[in-house]
Design a protein that fits this description.
141 residues; alpha/beta; Rossmann fold; four-stranded parallel β-sheet; 4 strands; 16% strand
């Protein structure tokens, strides 16, 4: 089993969505967790967008980096801009990948625009996670 840590600023949206997709596409070959630099609560718009794609993240709990720092990871995926300087030194020698995605929760949008932004983020993260699993962990035939 390959262990993956997904990191974002707050562990409320992007990293939680990516955790859901990585668990889905990496089922049976990965253990996935997510954490944030400054954890908050799960973004309900993110949970709703994921449930529209039949992935339930509604029970996910936001975690801080300090809660997972003593674990060994094979991969660390950083989804936020400008947080690499605050990341701790991880145990072992994980491969660290930085793939910044937009922080849609930090933008003030109207209802329709907000739903579209979360749906777009969900779809972009799905594509990213599908490719990550099949390029790095479980190649397609």
């Amino acid at each position: 089993m390959k262990k993956i840590l997904v990191v974002s600023q707050r562990n409320s949206c992007r990293s939680q969505m990516a955790e859901g997709w990585l668990k889905y596409y990496g089922k049976g070959v990965t253990e996935v967790t997510s954490a944030g630099v400054v954890p908050t609560e799960l973004d309900l718009f993110a949970a709703n967008a994921m449930s529209d794609a039949i992935i339930d993240i509604s029970n996910y709990k936001s975690k801080g980096i300090v809660q997972v720092i003593d674990q060994d990871f094979d991969y660390v995926i950083v989804l936020s801009n400008d947080i690499e300087h605050v990341l701790p030194t991880f145990k072992g020698t994980p491969r660290i990948y930085e793939y910044p995605f937009p922080d849609v929760g930090a933008v003030d949008l109207g209802d329709e625009e907000k739903k579209r932004a979360y749906d777009n983020l969900r779809d972009e993260l799905e594509n990213f996670c599908f490719d990550f699993i099949h390029q790095k962990i479980k190649p397609l035939i």
